[in-house]
Amino acid sequence: MLFILFTILLVVTGCEDKVKSHDEIQESSSQNHSIPIGSWKKLAPTYEQQLKELAKAVAKALEVPEVASYLKEEIGKKFDGDYEVLWKDVKDHPFVGKGNLRTIVANHLDNQSYSIEDIEQVPKLQIALPVGFEEWDGTTPIKVAYTPLTIDDTEIEVINAYDASGNQYELNAKIPPDFTLMAVSINERTDANGNVTYYAPNQDIYTGAEQSVPGDGDDEGGGGGGGGGGNSYHWQKLYEVRSRDYKEPFIKGDPEVRLKYIGFANGTAQVTNTHNLDTVFDTYWHWHIFLFGEWHYDHDWHDLDRNLFIRNASSYGDGIGMYWYEYDGGDDWTFSVNFGSSFSVNLTIKDGDDPMGHVLVPYNYSSQSRSEAFDTGDILFTMYHH
Predict the structure, then answer these.
(1) pLDDT band at 10, cuts 50/70/90?
(2) Lowest mean pLDDT segment, chosen from 103-112, 262-271, 280-289
(3) Which helix (H) or strand (E) element contains residue 106?
(4) What single-letter DSSP state applies at residue 108?
(5) Do residues 326 and 276 touch, judged by C-beta distance below 8 A?
(6) For residues 304 and 276, what is the distance between their CA atoms, to the nearest angstrom?
(7) Which of 23, 25, 8 is nearest to 299 (CA)?
(8) Which residues contact 89 (CB under 8 A, 6 or more apart)?
(9) Can you tell me the distance from the alpha carbon of 235 to that of 239, in angstroms, rounded to the nearest whole number?
(10) Looking at the chain, which terminus has fewer C-beta neighbours within 10 angstroms, N or C?
(11) pLDDT per residue as tens digits for the range 363-374
(12) Could you state, in order of their start, the residue ranges of all structural domains in the chain?
């Protein structure tokens, strides 16, 4: 018994050591520029009301066990890497003697100002299970929330959810509830046609090994030569990464963390690439021993060991600019970013995205340990040569 109590105390203590409070996270964050609200957000008040009405209707529809079971099954397929499914892909599914999902949900809309056709105007409409997928039996009715759209993700404090009787519940947006929660929202991982962007299930698109390519003599050699007098160039790997703040509430599921890396040479930007880390982080994680448990932000180190680029002085000789952000979508927005006093580059992200800081990695950097990690304020990461 004493051993069990000691183990519980050890787990709790270990967890607390890894986690900062939300206030501490905010203080340590570095947003290097402000992002304007894009034109797509001008429609947010209408979309938010539509999501609210849909949440109430779906909560009532979940009283049909077949509906609940079907939605859990489809959401569990994680078509884009997270527990969510597009409305367009499930709405026509038939249920014996009850019509299709669209009809069932439409029959439960209690606000005559919004029809199912109005609700389907919401772009990339989805149903998700951001909390408690594994714990849900897929038949018991659960509460359904909607994602606020009229306020920035970083400022959301309250999430509204509904049960099958129409009762409203106010949830803390910073801490997941201790029960399974469904949510209706706008998908952040697909394009306008519903095609997944970046995420490739069961596929490693960042493979590669030491290669020999043509180049100048300033780069370091090594490895098996490739002929033609060229030097052997080495993969530069993003080895480990840790986040201090994911810039969004739990209801939006796992964060879509992205990295733009820019090669500077001869005083100017030579190449710009985007790397996706959609499936790396969990917004929150939960530890549980017997009757004890607690939710925490995911601030653990994650091992990646991913190839980013091949070392090449003509493209990266002045250094590598690493710009991190959390993807939310919207319209294209182009802005200028300074990496130190010597380098500047124009980058394009979406006007709904949240910056997570940037840093310049020297061309001749040394492979680091975690204590020597590059730090943007929100992101810590290590790199090494392969």
Answers:
(1) very low
(2) 280-289
(3) helix 101-107
(4) T
(5) no
(6) 12
(7) 25
(8) 74, 79, 194
(9) 11
(10) N
(11) 988 877 888 899
(12) 40-186, 211-385
